[in-house]
Amino acid sequence: MYDNAAENNKGAKGNRTKIVIDLLKISISLTLIILLLSNIGLASIRRQIADADWRYVLLACMTFIISNIMGALQWHLLMKSQNMAIPFKYSLSFYHIGLFFNNFLIGYIGGDALRIYDVRRYSGDGAAAVTTVLFDRFIGFLTLTTTAMIVSLLWIGNLKSLNAVYSIAIILFIWLVALFFLFNNKAGFWLGRLFRPLLPGRIVAKVEEIYCSINNLRHSRMMLVQVIFISIFVQLLRIVTHYWTAISIGAKTHVLYFFIFVPIIALLASLPISFGGVGVREQSGVALFTTVGLGASQIATFEFLAYLVGIFATLPGGILFILRKEGKGAAS
Predict the structure, then answer these.
(1) How far apart are the C-alpha atoms of 152 and 155, rounded to whole Å?
(2) Is the C or the N end of the chain the one with fewer CB within 10 Å?
(3) pTM of this structure
């Protein structure tokens, strides 16, 4: 009886903590939005959206939709490498459901958790589900940052400030160090020994299982090459989506600035400090693009438009989530 009471108290405390954290993140999003609107004005953003050239907005939607289909293919190849017999139509369904919820949940954690849940529900292999989603997310961040680094070095003479370049270099270094530990057995297990005493045995066993699954991906070289090339294509399309929304409201600057700044914006928006990256995306966009002569009002508008495009392009995920059947499989 006392054990049950203790467990109930622990659960209630955990729920309260979660509520406090969620409220804090909502507060961060709202604070950033209020600060932005106080400097720019809601009327200005509303007017620019109303006057937008919707041909470019439609082009942005089409670009993002193609990137989503290619992103699902990237993830599907990773699942095939784990011997998961999941038809592509289900990979596409699960991927879009995850993307849809990423628009509204904390960072990208909520949508990725749904992807893991769906794949585990279909295949019964929880470790492989976690492996493929984590590595899919990692490879996306790595190719996005690498692209930004290459473009920033090629365009460095045209940058008034090198702060963005330094930021990208630091982030890329972190990803490369992570890749080294993921694909190097000795380094990975050495790092594991440092953290093993701090974690319960069950969690250690799960982490080691997932680590070994990711580590074994290094043997699937052809698959990795395919995934990397697809990922580069996906990230380029998603960057271009922001460019189209900027053009739609007449915010004109060289497209290469988008390949430098949008990856930083995307990485900041993915941090679990806000819901759907709202507020963080717009504020970071203003901080970066004002350095190349764009107005804060224009930047906030095209970044918000890019967010709306993302919601529209992932609407099939929301519909599939509502229509899908519980149990093995997905929405028919």
Answers:
(1) 5
(2) N
(3) 0.83
